[in-house]
């Protein structure tokens, strides 16, 4: 079906920007295609796609480079993240979550940038990127800019990207001294299941209080999101289980859907948070 739609396959960012500057109506970016092709097969929004910009051969968008931040090109696949010593050293949670995305076929083709731009509330990497204070570098013919992860997801499956912009890279600043980032994905099965609840939690532990706290959740609201009230409840404090559960209740507004009920999600996210915090505090 998609082959009937005009497609351009640039080999460089300059070529890609030239296509973006032409203002094609209904332009859709294609990276690994593991989300887009599913939507195309289901004929979802097919009539709104007027032109496909297939960026798979744009090498500048691939690869993982260490600098003042760890820069992961938008086209980097989950398989590349899984085998990267650089990511394993600084963000082991990102390696672990990549192992849980689909199975090998999806990990070989699906990209981190595709997970970000698809902006599903159930996108598995997104709470981790939010809790890591990731910055998204975006660019197009009008120039480049940087968007903090917590300003990127603006509505249900809606991002801050303009029609003529691409996601270029995901930049991860080094974690604060002594802080660890843990996450837990709760699904029907260990693999090949869309998540019901995802929670990522970053904090240091002084022996009596948490510091540098970031909490972010997926499947608990129309967008993946930070949990500011929970962060305040934890920063500089010990593990007050009731306070954490109450703050998560204020931060998150889960819905009933075919995978789970709101009540289940709210209870489970509290249980997961307490378990991760106990782990961070060395209590388990
Ligand atoms: C069988 C199966 C299992 C899956 N399991 C999981 C799972 O466990 N967890 C999970 O989170 N996801 C899962 N997915 C979804 C999917 O694999 C991921 O979201 C993946 O990261 C998408 O990346 P992609 O490169 O294939 O994106 P694509 O399908 O190419 O693109 C996705 C969206 O992002 C846009 N886009 C992509 N790259 C860019 C860019 N650089 N700039 C601007 N826009 C861009 C596209 O236009 C499109 O709207 C699964 C999918 C399948 C089919």
Low-confidence stretches: none
Q: What small molecules are bound in this structure?
A: flavin-adenine dinucleotide
- Taking all residues together, what is the mean pLDDT? 94
Percent helix = 25-40%
Rounded radius of gyration (Å): 19 Å
- Class by helix and strand content? alpha+beta
Tell how many strands the DSSP assignment holds. Answer: 14
The end-to-end span amounts to 52 Å
Beta-strand percentage?
15-25%
Secondary-structure element string: EHEHEEEHHHHHHEEEEEEEEEHHH
Count of helical regions: 11
Largest sheet: 5 strands, antiparallel
**Dominant shape:** globular
Task: List the strand order in the largest sheet.
Answer: 4-5-10-6-7
Topology:
Layout: E1 7-8, H1 13-21, E2 27-30, H2 36-41, E3 51-54, E4 64-66, E5 70-73, H3 78-82, H4 85-90, H5 92-100, H6 104-109, H7 112-118, H8 126-131, E6 135-140, E7 143-148, E8 153-155, E9 158-159, E10 166-172, E11 180-186, E12 197-205, E13 210-218, E14 225-226, H9 228-234, H10 241-251, H11 262-280
Parallel strand pairs: 1-3, 2-3
Antiparallel strand pairs: 4-5, 5-10, 6-7, 6-10, 8-9, 11-12, 12-13, 13-14
The structure holds flavin-adenine dinucleotide.
Task: Provide key terms for this protein.
five-stranded antiparallel beta sheet, alpha+beta, globular, four-stranded antiparallel beta sheet, 24% strand, 284 residues, binds flavin-adenine dinucleotide
């Amino acid at each position: 079906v998609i082959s009937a739609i005009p497609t351009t396959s640039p080999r460089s960012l300059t070529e890609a920007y030239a296509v973006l500057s032409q203002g094609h109506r209904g332009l859709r970016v294609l990276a690994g295609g593991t989300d887009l092709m599913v939507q195309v097969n289901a004929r979802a929004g097919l009539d709104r796609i007027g032109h496909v910009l297939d960026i798979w051969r744009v090498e500048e968008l691939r690869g993982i480079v260490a600098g003042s931040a760890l820069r992961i090109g938008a086209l980097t696949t989950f398989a590349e993240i899984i085998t990267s010593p650089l990511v394993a050293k600084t963000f082991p949670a990102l390696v672990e979550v990549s192992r849980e995305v689909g199975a090998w076929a999806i990990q070989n083709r699906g990209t981190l940038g595709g997970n970000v731009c698809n902006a599903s509330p159930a996108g598995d990497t997104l709470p981790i990127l939010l809790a890591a204070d990731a910055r998204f570098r975006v660019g197009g013919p009008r120039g480049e800019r940087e968007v903090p992860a917590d300003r990127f997801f603006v509505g249900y499956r809606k991002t801050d990207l303009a029609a003529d912009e691409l996601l270029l890279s995901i930049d991860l600043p080094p974690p604060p001294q002594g802080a660890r980032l843990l996450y837990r994905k709760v699904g029907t099965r260990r693999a090949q299941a869309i998540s019901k609840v995802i929670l990522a939690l970053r904090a240091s532990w002084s022996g009596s209080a948490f510091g540098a706290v970031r909490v972010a959740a997926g499947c608990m609201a129309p967008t993946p999101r930070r949990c500011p009230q929970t962060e305040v409840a934890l920063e500089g404090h010990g593990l007050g289980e009731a306070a954490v559960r109450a703050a998560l209740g204020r931060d998150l507004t889960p819905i009933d859907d075919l995978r789970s009920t709101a009540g289940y999600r709210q209870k489970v996210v509290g249980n997961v948070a307490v378990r991760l915090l106990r782990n961070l505090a060395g209590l388990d």
